[in-house]
């Protein structure tokens, strides 16, 4: 199912998007280096080269500043899944899209995974940062439903698709969190995601074994 084309952004919209991205990248780097407690909104604004007023024009809190970057990872995965060739079995589609979004590449350099690891390691000590992470995960699960519905040829609001989206998103989330907590290289995130999906093969594909 191909991703529909998006309308081209105006020059003003591109500038705003670039500013937002720069602030988000700066926040992620500072959180990774100093932790959330050691970083203020003023620090982020100053390092990003914008005024504090501009910072708050884009983000309500310092923790909200990393939401676009955390959402980007899920968005890349869902876009790859949406581009899966029709007729592809569900598990291979999930595995291929997960690896494509987690393996370092020109569109997702190893540096991006490095700050993702730093952010996830900072989260246990910052409830607001955890809230941002869980909010982006909830949004990703919702966005998965129509994509998975198209692959499975089921209604997007059906119980099966809701369960499927929840299980698939949880597999990715747990894999990334487990990778961030360890010391493996960036490729380890993709490997953990593949392991998580394979262990959920039954629930994800509907091939549940009847109890004896």
UniProtKB/TrEMBL annotation:
GO terms for molecular function: DNA-binding transcription factor activity; transcription cis-regulatory region binding. PROSITE patterns: HTH_TETR_2. Keywords: DNA-binding, Transcription, Transcription regulation. InterPro entries: Homeodomain-like_sf, HTH-type_TetR-like_transc_reg, HTH_TetR. It comes from the Bacteria. It holds the Pfam family TetR_N. Residues 40-59 bind DNA. Residues 17-77 form the HTH tetR-type domain. PANTHER family: HTH-TYPE TRANSCRIPTIONAL REGULATOR RUTR, MYCOFACTOCIN BIOSYNTHESIS TRANSCRIPTIONAL REGULATOR MFTR-RELATED. This is TetR family transcriptional regulator. It comes from Kitasatospora griseola (Streptomyces griseolosporeus).
